From TrEMBL:
N-terminal signal peptide: none
Native source species: Vreelandella maris
Any one GO CC term of the record: cytoplasm
Database matches in InterPro entries: FAD-dep_OxRdtase (IPR006076), FAD/NAD-bd_sf (IPR036188)
PANTHER family listed in its UniProt record: GAMMA-GLUTAMYLPUTRESCINE OXIDOREDUCTASE (PTHR13847:SF275), SARCOSINE DEHYDROGENASE-RELATED (PTHR13847)
Name of this protein: FAD-binding oxidoreductase
Keywords for the protein's UniProt record, in alphabetical order: Oxidoreductase
GO molecular function: oxidoreductase activity
Pfam families membership: DAO (PF01266)
TM region positions: none
Domain FAD dependent oxidoreductase residue range list: 32-382
Lineage: Bacteria, Pseudomonadati, Pseudomonadota, Gammaproteobacteria, Oceanospirillales
Amino acid sequence: MPTPLSERCLWHQTSAETPLDYPVLASHEEVDVCVMGGGITGLSTAMHLAEKDIKTTLLEAGDIPSGGSGRSVGLVNAGLWIPPDDIVAALGKENGERVNTILGGAPSKVFEIIERHAIQCDATRTGTLHLGHNAKGCQELARRRDQLQHRGAPVTLLEGEECERMTGTSQIHTALLDERAGTINPCGYTRGLARAAANSGATLYCHSAATGIERHGDRWRVMTEGGSVTANRVVMATNAYTEDGWNQVRQHFFTGHFFQLASEPLIGKAADAILPEKQGAWDTRTVLSSIRRDKEGRLILGSLGKGEGRPLSYLTHWADTIQNHYFPALGSVRWQYTWTGKVAFTPDHTLRIFEPAPGILSATGYNGRGITTGTVVGQGFAHYIAKGDDSLLPLPVSQPKPIKVRPLWSCAYEGGFSLYHAGQCLRVLI
C-alpha cells in the first residue's frame, strides 16, 4: 500500500543521528554562560564555549531539534541570499565584505565540524545549483557569477546541454554551480552538534523553556518552570522561534515560513536524471522553489510560505504542478511527507548581531541561510565571550534599530507567497 501524505518532517524520520535523552532543568545552576535555544546557533555556541573550558548551560524549550534547524531544506550555502555587491550596498564596504568573506567560507566550517565529530547527516560536498527560471533570472545569475568570481569564489555558470544534464530538466537553461556548498540532513546535523557540545563539556537541558530573565548584580538569572541558571553572559539563540515578549529579539526580525514535500523513494532512469551529482538547488523566482534529493532517492520540493494548516490536497496539487513542470518524465509521483519551518527575515535581507542588554548577545535575521550562518555565529560568539574580540563574527556586535510595523511585513510576505502559489497551481506563474 502506498504511504499517504502526512504532516511529518522527513529529516526527523530519516536522521542517522538518534535523539539523545537530555534532562529537564530542575534546580539552580551557576555557570559562566547560559545559552537559550537548542538550534544550530545555540549548539554551535555551546560547543565552541565548552571547547574553551568555559562552563556553559544550554536551555531548549522542546526537543533537539524542535525548530527550524531541523526543518530546513538542508542546503549548506555560502554567503547570504542576496548578491555580494548588494550586501556591500546595504552594509557598507567594510562590513559588507566582512560578511562576504566569513559567510563565503562558512560551508567549510560546517563540513569540518561534521568530519571532526563524525556527525551522521548524509553530507554531500558537490555544491549547490541556483537555477535561472526565466531570461531575467539567467541575467541575474550571470551578474552573481561575475561578482563571486571577482572575489575568488569557485562558481561556474552552466548553460545549454551541460545545464540540462546537471539539473535533469529542460526547463532550466542556466544554472550557477557553487562548489563551496553542499547538502546535509539538517536534523542529523543539529543532533550531532548537540552530541558534540555535550561531549565537549556543555550541559544541555530540554523541555526547559526560559520564562524570564532578571539582573542579579553584574550577572543574569534565567528562570524556567523547574529551575534557574545564573550566568555572567547570556546568549539568546532562539531566532525565528523567539516568542517571549520579555526579550528584545523579536523586535529585530519578522517571521516567514518555508514548506516542503517529499516523495516516496524514486527509482528508474527518469529519477536518476534529476540532480545526478546530488546538488541541492533553488530557482530565481521571487517566491523561490527548492529542489533536492535525499539519500533514499526522494524528490523534495519546497517554497516560501506556510504549509501547516493548508489542505493536504492543495499542497499535493502545488507539488504536482512544480514536478510536472520540471520533471514530466517522472509521471505521477506519490508524496509522503510535508512539513513547515519558520524563517527570520529582515527588510534588507541581512542578519543582525547585537547586545539587547549588557552581557547578553543575540543574532537573528538569517533569511533562510541558518545552517552556515548559525554555525559561524556560534563560533564567533564563543570567541567574543572568551577574548572580547568579535572578528570571527560576520558583523560587529552592534545595536541595530528595531524593525517598524513587523506584523505588516509578515502579513505582506505570507500574503504574497499565497497568491504566488495559487498562480502556480492555476499555471499562471509557471
